[in-house]
Amino acid sequence: FPGAIRPSDVRRLLGKKKGDQLCELVGGGPKFMFDQIGKYQIQCDAEQNGWVQPAHSAKSEARIRGVFEDWKEFGQPVEWLDRDATFAKIGAPDYLGGWWCQSGGTVNPLALCRGLARAAVSHGLDIVEYAHVSHVLQNANSTEIQWNDKQINARKVVIATNGYADDLFPSLKKTIVPVRLFHTFTKPLTAAQRGEVLPTRVCFTDIRKSGGFCRYSPDGRILSGGLVYKIGDERANGVQHSIERLRQLFPQLGTPEIDYYWEGYCALSATWLPSISVLSKDVYSLAGFSTRGVSISQNLGRLFAEYLVDDRPIEEMPVEVGRPEAFPLRSLKTVLGGYAFPIFKAADRLGLT
Q1: DSSP letters for 16-63
Q2: Whole-prediction pTM value?
């Protein structure tokens, strides 16, 4: 789950039954995902070397210790790491400790998306690209979807655009705050550097508000990133932040060079958990993955598909299901999100996180 959200927090939000079901889905998500990658032979740079949540401060260590204890009690394959063990795992000398989840891993998400599309087509699915849906109209016995100059009738409709929701259903757009993130890739590290930086090729994410996460690409580049800052040159800001953060995490790197930069939206929900909105009769959305969508979207999608073919009651979905509820102060938070990055960095420097 995002940040320091614990399984016990999820139970409080969703109730014990749904909370436990969602925790089981999240905990077992990587196995399902990597098994599916193997089943369909999807070439997406998949590596399952585990995932670490390290502590960058005494305050964060106390919080993630609680996360670890919850997942351990839940029966997940997790291990607490002291300072030396954390350094041995990820090669960053300043972390105080952390916990390791053995089932975690990394993928190239675009290649995974394309591989899943090919698998879906092999099962007879029709995929229509570059089709802007302009209207969704209710008829007596079906729902009419209009796009470009075409239309189809559907028994059920799911909108799964997450942070890219538009005005097709304004009530859906109001349920999430779109947040624009950036990622960077360094130049390939030397063999000597790869022996010191992420030597076990594990990926990690700390709970700094200004971002502390890294993983390798197959050719030895380091991926990092953060929140897009809309003042000045966005790309220059992002590249400079990545360089500073990598120098902080891995002093042995010196000043890394950045080769690639890109941006994209994620969707934050008010609870930091995804939910299903019932937009009208037989029209639904699934959104709000809050920076954790790669695994959980596939796993929730699988369960949602069971509902769509009448194999699972919608009440048994392990997330909230109901009419769309507006994110409190959504318009203000959407605007402020583009200018918040320096505040987040200051909070980290002052030890507030």
Answers
A1: HHHHHHHHHHHHHHHHHHHHHHHHTT--S--B---EEEEESSHHHHHH
A2: 0.94
